[in-house]
Amino acid sequence: MDNPELIEQQLREEKDLLEAIISSMGEGLLVVGLDYKITMVNPAAEKILGFVRTEAVGQPWAEVVVAYKDGEPIPFANRTSIVVLNTGMTVITSLTENHYYKTKAGRYFPVTSVTAPIKSGGKIIGAVKVFRDATPEEESQAKVESKVKALTGYKNIFDNLMEGCQIVDFNYRYIYVNDATVKQGKTSAEELIGRTMMEKFPGIVDTPMFVRLKKCMEKRVAQNMENEFSFPDGSKGWFELRMEPVPEGVLILSLDITNRKKTENDLKAKNEDLERLNKLMIGRELKMIELKKKLKSK
User: Fold this and answer.
1) Measured distance CA(146)–CA(277) in Å, rounded
2) Which range among 169-178, 233-242, 259-268 shows the weakest confidence by mean pLDDT?
3) Choosing a second label site near 47 at 20 to 30 A (CA), which of 16, 103, 217, 252?
4) Does residue 59 share a domain with residue 164?
5) Does 36 lie in the same domain as 153?
6) Percent of the chain at pLDDT above 90?
7) Domain shared by 229 and 293, yes or no
8) CATH value at residue 214
9) Does residue 114 sit in the same domain as residue 165?
10) 288 and 238 part of one domain
11) CA-CA distances (angstroms) from residue 260 to 67, 136, 267?
12) Torsions phi, psi for 30 (to 5 deg)
């Protein structure tokens, strides 16, 4: 027969481990019960949202954290935690979905998050949300969009852009690249100017990026996209592209978002961590039940 004292010690150790993991997370973490009330918050969530634990625990999630999408409050039934509790599906929100939270002080900030169900015995008993303030990523995106609108067609402006800037003519031949483009592409201006995209990057015509570029070139319609690029050395990078028709052909602005994509992938990976935390919490619950039974049988 198992030793009750040993089981109790294991429970304490698992509880300490669980609390250490949650407290040390850089992202905010909230747990919501079936009654839609907050049951747990970590220090990062307190810092991001501007409240203390005692102000949140036991209160309705939708009242403590007000969420917005495209400037409008998100209806209760559409809140991610509510959707997860009602469907059992994991929900991931990225920067492109324009979700915002409002802090206690009234500041609005863009949020990215992963919300997953907590299950016990196959039944949903709550939802856990891991989220982060995505303000830095939004500011980077806004900077690119602002510069696209401010284009004047003068080369000296493009030379000083922090973002990559390139112009291809109607034959998809490079006629201008700035230093940022050269750095992003791990190449040189001499290797690009005067050559076509097809000459420099065989197979590019079969990529989704070229489809968008061709549409911009032929239809004279601006295009935006996120593109994963494979370099000749085997490495890969992610770039946010803005394609604008200009008299010479197409102007392409590029922003390196490799780190941002890594962050998004990390958020997805957090889902796996949440599953492990879920199992740990359930295992602790089961051991507690076992301990209580053993103590009663004495």
Assistant:
1) 42
2) 259-268
3) 16
4) no
5) no
6) 22
7) no
8) 3.30.450.20
9) no
10) no
11) 22, 10, 11
12) -135, 140
| Token pair listed for 26 | 């850089």
pTM for the complete prediction?
0.45
Same domain as 125, residue 61: yes
- DSSP secondary-structure letter at 227? E
Q: 279 vs 12, which has greater pLDDT? A: 279
- Distance between CA atoms of 295 and 225, rounded to whole angstroms? 62
* Token reading at 228: 């994963």
Q: In what order do the strands lie in the sheet with 174-177?
A: 174-177, 164-168, 249-256, 236-246, 223-230
The pLDDT value recorded for residue 15 is 47
If DSSP codes are grouped into helix, strand and coil, which group holds residue 266? helix
Ranges of beta strands (E only) in the chain are 28-33, 38-41, 66-69, 72-73, 91-93, 99-102, 108-120, 123-133, 164-168, 174-177, 223-230, 236-246, 249-256
Element (H, E) at 271: helix 258-297
**Do both 144 and 75 map to the same domain?**
no
Token look-up 């009654």 returns 35
Q: Which domain holds residue 49?
A: 4-133+260-297
Whether residue 67 is found in the same domain as residue 94:
yes
Total domains, the chain: 2
Element (H, E) at 285: helix 258-297
Mean pLDDT (whole number) for 2-7: 58
Phi-psi region of 83 (alpha: psi -120 to 50; beta: other; left: phi over 0): alpha
Nearest to 120 by CA among 298, 297, 243, 286: 286
